[in-house]
């Protein structure tokens, strides 16, 4: 085996090992455990809000955004690992993978939540037209946020 071929093999093996380590680290680190715990708490809070307001929009939005966040995290991780490998195979792959995963996950989740909320508004999902009990004007009540109990328009609140 020539030295060149040997070096290529070594680089390839280091990259493979790094990718598998990055995968294991991402699955088992407290950081990702905290992320999952926060997601579960977030969904739990949304369910609570929806039960309180007799709506479903909070839960649907949060679960959709969380799913998009996972997808974005995986995609970001792959992009980061590839970029990191180009800079420095091994450590670069691991660091790039983790950084890319976090940025991708947060970015996708944030973007998804905004997009889903926009669609929800367009569909008037859990938005009702109520009559203000103080000034008698009709107004859009975001039931999924405030519940139906607050029958005052924005001006009278
Ligand atoms: Zn009013």
Could you walk me through the main structural features you see in this protein, from its secondary elements to its overall organization?
The chain is mainly α and 157 residues long. The model has no long low-confidence stretch (mean pLDDT 81). Helix 1 crosses helix 4 (91-122), helix 2 (30-53) runs antiparallel to helix 3 (57-87) and helix 3 (57-87) packs antiparallel against helix 4. The chain is 75% helix and 6% strand. It has a two-stranded antiparallel ribbon. It has 5 helices and 2 strands, in the order ααααββα. The radius of gyration is 23 Å and the shape is elongated. The chain has helices at 3-28, 30-53, 57-87, 91-122, 143-146, and strands at residues 127-131, 138-142. The protein folds into 2 domains: 3-124, no CATH class; 126-157. The structure holds zinc ion. The site of zinc ion has 8 residues, from loops. This is Glycine zipper domain-containing protein.
Task: Quickly list its features.
Glycine zipper domain-containing protein; single chain; 157 residues; two-stranded antiparallel ribbon; binds zinc ion
Low-pLDDT parts are none
Radius of gyration: 23 Å
Largest sheet: 2 strands, antiparallel
What distance separates the N and C termini? Answer: 79 Å
Shape: elongated
Q: Name the helicity range.
A: over 70%
**Into how many domains do the coordinates divide?**
2
Overall number of strands? 2
What percent strand? Answer: 5-15%
Counting helices, strands and paired strands, the structural category is mainly alpha
Number of helices: 5
Mean pLDDT: 81
Q: Which series of helices and strands comes N to C?
A: HHHHEEH
- Major sheet: arrangement of strands: 1-2
Ligands present: zinc ion
Protein name: Glycine zipper domain-containing protein
Organism: Caenorhabditis angaria
């Amino acid at each position: 085996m020539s030295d060149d071929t040997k070096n290529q093999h070594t680089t390839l093996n280091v990259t493979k090992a790094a990718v598998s380590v990055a995968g294991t680290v991402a699955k088992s680190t407290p950081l990702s455990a905290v992320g999952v715990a926060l997601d579960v708490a977030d969904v739990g809070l949304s369910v609570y809000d929806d039960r309180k307001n007799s709506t479903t929009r909070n839960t649907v939005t949060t679960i959709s955004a969380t799913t998009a966040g996972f997808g974005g995290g995986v995609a970001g991780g792959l992009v980061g690992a590839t970029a990191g490998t180009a800079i420095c195979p091994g450590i670069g792959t691991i660091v790039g993978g983790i950084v890319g995963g976090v940025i991708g996950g947060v970015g996708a989740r944030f973007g998804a939540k905004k997009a889903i909320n926009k669609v929800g508004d367009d569909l008037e999902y859990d938005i009702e037209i109520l009559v203000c009990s103080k000034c008698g004007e009709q107004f859009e009540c975001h039931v999924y946020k405030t519940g139906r109990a607050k029958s005052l328009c924005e001006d009278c609140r």
